[in-house]
Amino acid sequence: MEARPAIDARKARILRAIIEDYVLTAMPVGSRTISRKYETGLSSATIRNEMSDLEELGYLAQPHVSAGRVPSVKAYRLYVDELLGGSPVPQDAAAKAYFSQRVRQLEDVITSAAQAISEITRYTAVVMMPKQLELRVSCLQLVPMPRGSALLVIVTDTGAIRDTVIRVSENLDGDALYAISRMLTERLSGRTLQEVQEMLGAYARQAGSDARVLQGIADLAAQMEKQSATDTVTVGGSHNILNYPEYSDVEKARAFLSVLEKRERLMQLLSGQEAGFTVRIGPETGVPEMADCSVVTASYRVGAGHQGFVGVIGPTRMPYGRVLSALGTVGGALSDMLGE
């Protein structure tokens, strides 16, 4: 490995600020930007002199005479090894297998819960997860893949994981991607997916073609928003209602099933409820097609302070005690599995 010239603490602090700003904006960084945005305690003139020294040492480059500086590969290497403690880069195959397994497990839990409730009660079951854009980012990881691409993984505070393959600059090796992951996790941890989407979308629009990493993250957040209507609500036993004489009429049954197909309407039906049990009987549901139905729900905990709901939709003549007991049991099990 090529020996790197040592730099003092002040140069290291400035270099880190330059790297972090460049990662977020993909635009050359000037001394005034560092002085204004980061608490260095240094004047623009002092920062400019230090940046000149860093350029001579090979840590920075200047695309144009009047432009600011951009980090070099050597700078990313230093950022990983010294500024961030030099943690190892995860293996791509192992990381992808791990995250793919976690995604399947979470989805299986929700699907299994809906199926279990429908089988126990013989009614239609619904399970609602918290809105995805309200979830908060725990960490973000860019895993190296074949040249010019990376696996982008976002982990939320509920344990939910989403990943996608994005295009990245071929100049970004595994060390640089890991450094970007660490920095973005520091910046975005604790923010909602909606905030992340807005922030990175704005950064990417300002940065142009060199912001493929940021645009990839923003696109994944937008994709999660589009999926929220279908992913947030899972239905089990939708045709169970046909076993009851109240819905022997074909038109009445078709109207009921059409409500189940429109996930937005189910989300409205289940949203805005308090923790614990809720029972809506007949017209109380506010859905004309369910005037002869009752909707019984129980809450469960997800992650750090989020709340989901499990519910049953059936004729108003349901055995409420047994249904409440079943929902309480399943809701408690989900809280144990998905809560903190």
TrEMBL record:
Family to which this protein belongs: Belongs to the HrcA family.
- What's the protein called, per UniProt? Heat-inducible transcription repressor HrcA
Write one Gene Ontology MF term. Answer: DNA binding
Specify the Heat-inducible transcription repressor HrcA C-terminal domain's residue ranges: 107-323
Q: What biological processes does GO assign it?
A: negative regulation of DNA-templated transcription
**Keyword set, alphabetical order:** Repressor, Stress response, Transcription, Transcription regulation
Q: Where is the organism placed in the taxonomic lineage, from the top? A: Bacteria, environmental samples
**TM spans (from-to):** none
Briefly, what is this protein's role? Negative regulator of class I heat shock genes (grpE-dnaK-dnaJ and groELS operons). Prevents heat-shock induction of these operons.
